[in-house]
Amino acid sequence: MKTDKSGEWTISQIINAAASEDFSYLYVKRDSPILGRKAAGDLEVFQSRTVSQSQLDSFFSLQVPLPHRKVFDSQGYTRFMLITDKALRSRFDLIETTDGIAIISHILPDTPEDPECIGLGDAFGDFTATNGGLYFVCSKPRSGKSTALASLIAKTNSQTSKHILWVSEGTEFLFEQSTSFVSQLEVNVPDGAKLSPIILETWSPDVIATDMPLHGEFVEWLLRAAETGAKVFVCMQSPGTVYGLYTLVSRVDPDRRDDARHRLANVFERAVYIELIQGLNDIVPATEILVGIEPVRNLLREGKFEQVLDMIPAGSKYGMQTIEKSKSYLSKMELI
Asked: Residue 275 in contact with residue 140, Cβ under 8 Å?
């Protein structure tokens, strides 16, 4: 790795080196080994050499935008985007700790063009031909739900003429303007903070994609948007499609859950659960698919989520699929 004039690496050089070895995240702290994590992987040591205070000071003074330096000085935390010297896009979180500045860098992936390019075409169906309704993209942590959601929005962006609103807790994917117009709203707040629907009402989007923790008021705004014709994509951390639906309803205040369940049943279209598997040559996605046919919607209205789960194995003629069937297909195709 090349060094700067002082003989030390710069933080940007460290990021570039990590990207060349397919790392997605780096955790940098003074006098500590540099830790990293690859997609769907566990935390590991990227570099055993430690970062000095001068490296951190140089990064802070030369790379951190002035407005964010001021926020950091007043609050001890800030988040910003940078393009490094090899045109890599990275999102940085600066955190004031008892031992000084700590840096979390997320090396942002390229935005996928469509679900097909990441092996998910059959799972989603033709989203661009369907009007309105509520769609779920579910997975366990670090298992591809955000990438899958981005692929859907990229396809919608290139094949329809819509106003798309992407709401996320942290920017991970960037969308160039195509036949649609994409507004990206980053909500840089703690999990428990509330995003006011009053603000969102002013956007009047045709398509909404949300990749952030949800609360009751926000869930009701999403339901209302789907009821009035918007196509709404919800990214959920969940061990399955049905549990994703259950989790959405559970975010609403208890005295409003019956109403939320009925509203969900009226607008639910499709849910996909993604599980990443190490294949013979690459990581491949297995999928569980739930489709909002009328019997499924009736069970949702009644709150019979376990019976909804039982319908998936028998729903293949409607496009439903169990995770076991998906894995069997991947094995048959000699992908795993």
From this structure: yes
Model confidence at 192, pLDDT cuts 50, 70, 90, reads: very low
For residue 5, give every residue at least 6 positions away whose Cβ sits within 8 Å of its Cβ, in sequence order, or none: none
Q: Where are the alpha helices (DSSP H) in the chain?
A: 11-20, 53-62, 66-75, 121-124, 145-159, 197-201, 216-227, 241-250, 257-267, 294-302, 305-311, 323-332
SS3 137: strand
Domains of the chain in start order, with CATH, are 11-107 (3.30.450.90), 115-333 (3.40.50.300)
pTM exceeding 0.85: no
Which tokens belong to 222? 């999403």
Q: Looking at this protein, which amino acid is placed at residue 274?
A: I
> CA nearest 30: which of 102, 104, 105?
102
State pLDDT tens for residues 124-180.
766 555 678 999 999 998 788 888 898 888 888 888 889 999 888 776 787 877 888
